[in-house]
Amino acid sequence: MDWITLILTVSLVIIFFHLLFGKRSHPNAPPCIRGWIPWFGAAFEFGKAPLHFIQQARAKYGPVFTVVAAGKRLTFVTLNEDFRAFFTSKDVDFEQAVQEAVHNTASISKDSFFKTHPTCATVIKGRLTPGNTAMLSAHLCEEFNDHLENLGSEGSGQLNELIKSVMYPSVMSNLLGRCNTPNNALTRQEFLKKFTTYDEGFEYGSQLPDMFLKEWANSKQWLLSLLRNMALNAQETLYSENDGKTLLQHLATAISEQHLPNYGLLLLWASLANAIPITFWAIAFILANPEAYKIAMDQINAALRDQDKKTTKVTLDDLQHMPYVKWCIMEAIRLRAPGAITRKVVRPLKLQNYIIPPGDMLMLSPYWAHRNTKYFPDPEDFKPERWEKADLEKNVHLEGFVAFGGGKNQCPGRWYAVMELHMFVALILYKFDFTPLDPVPKPSPLHLVGTQQPDGPCTVRYKHR
Ligand code: HEM
Fold first, then answer.
1. Which residues cross the membrane (predicted)?
2. Three-state DSSP class for 172?
3. Most CB contacts within 10 A, which of 133, 288, 318, 434?
């Protein structure tokens, strides 16, 4: 048999099986992009650049469409009027949507997750209210100062690496306890390496068994055993810091010792994976915009006055005097919001004129929602002033802003994230002068889960002011 006959025969067999066994869509189901290969579907095209794929599919198929990829049906909702159903409908479920990913990334069994997640979510939400977040701010500022001083009085490097080296240990210490922060340069380096591998492979790791991702699986095991030690430390040092318990200690009172490291790893990932790239984008955008930089620096200098640049105190009151810096943070979050968030359809769900069948994964892209010109004119531009209309003091965001999700599973760390980023950006710009040596990189189109990483270098020179 020659090659052409072989290829034709294989194609005919594939089409035959596809027609025979391919799941037929309900007549009221949304348009479906299923590719030619049964089960695998459009996984290849979709996986190459998911964010671009969503945009092209929306233009071609309309506001609601389904993508079949690797045995899953992903149904995207892109109209703001459908977001309410996504966040609040009883016909969709958060826990069922994320359970498999949680199993693959943190080795938490299905039963344990369904049993324990509601308690964990309640504890985390309760500990990270705006009031409780405020109590973490003084300690966080000390940590930022200490680790920023480790950068030395001048130097150069990749902006995202500099940010990581300061934020990882500071946030870990603040949320998990000082005894649990990497305490020397070597362990810090090792932690950074393992966490970066884990974070970068999180999307594939959430979908594939460990045997396909050896290095990633090793990093996961390393982090789990680190968390096991941290959980032990957390129990031995109860009530030792700030006259109160850390978030990890609060979690320890709510779930069994056996499960603490696994939930601790998820919490650690959730608290770092989105906040650190957003900090990178916020600083890169400010440095690339002379006008924004000038307004931000005027507010920072006026609020912090002539403090010692090595032990600068940034209080919540100081932050209130720097509203423009907060607008810059919100604008960076808007521009680099998570690629997609998800719910599982558990009962037929009506959206527009369609019925979405149970079993579908319902997908909403905050990244694309924030490019809707009705809510955000000139959506690709970095325009901090657009946040003037939001009542941020009362924690009210702009209409159409969904970076933190919504409904009962909305990000419980959102107040902490905004406070942390606001403080970090004000502090680093007060302490150091920066000279960018590269233009702002483009966001990588590769990932769907979480906020976007830079797709190229962003080298900076810095010097203590
Ligand atoms: C700019 C930074 C951040 C962004 C953009 C972000 C965004 C999100 C989003 C979109 C979700 C899913 C919400 C949904 O499906 O409706 C989420 C969940 C979560 N986030 Fe954040 N987040 C950030 C920072 C943080 C921080 C700093 C923490 C912890 C201190 C945190 C803790 C969590 C947790 C624990 C969940 C899971 C909630 C659950 O299981 O119900 N996040 N986040």
1. 266-288
2. helix
3. 318
